Amino acid sequence: MTHDELLLFGERLHSRRKLLNFTQDFVSEKAGISLRFYQMIERGEKSVSLDTLIRLSDILKISVDYLLFGDLSYSLDNPLTEALGRLSPQQREDALKILQLYSKACSSQNK
Predict the structure, then answer these.
(1) Rounded distance between C-alpha atoms, residue 38 and residue 44, angstroms
(2) Which architecture characterizes domain 1-70 according to CATH?
(3) Can you give the residue ranges of every domain in the chain?
């Protein structure tokens, strides 16, 4: 990966971790890597092995495609994914937050 790709990968990890309200310590422990190494990944200073990539994807509940490429096109036959694919990465994060709030509101109405 190029330096710019590592930076973007780290930003995606950071954004997703923050969205889930996970600490760096929690994610690094679950992934089986040191906190220092995880921090270096988020800063775009280190790359990860395939095993670590898969563990991070599982922990953060996000696709490997998105972590690596910022791409949600892996399931374009889904209209929601198609709409999200036309947005910038920041707009996708914002849309996810809106959907989570909407889902939470719907759940509380059904109680």
Answers:
(1) 10
(2) Orthogonal Bundle (1.10)
(3) 1-70, 72-111
The pLDDT value recorded for residue 88 is 84
Task: Return the structure tokens found at 104.
Answer: 């939470």
85 alpha-carbon distance from chain centroid? 15
Tokens found for residue 73? 């096109």
Contact indicator for 40, 68 with CB cutoff of 8 Å? no
How far CA 78 is from CA of 45, 63, 75, 100, in Å, comes to 35, 15, 6, 18
* Dist. CA 59–CA 108, nearest whole Å: 26
End-to-end Cα, the chain, rounded Å: 48
pLDDT of residue 78: 61
Say which amino acid occupies 24. Answer: Q
The 10s digit of each residue's pLDDT in 41-67 is 999 999 999 999 999 999 998 888 889
Contacts of 57 (CB under 8 A, 6+ apart): 63, 64, 67
Task: Give the E-state strand segments of the chain in sequence order.
Answer: none
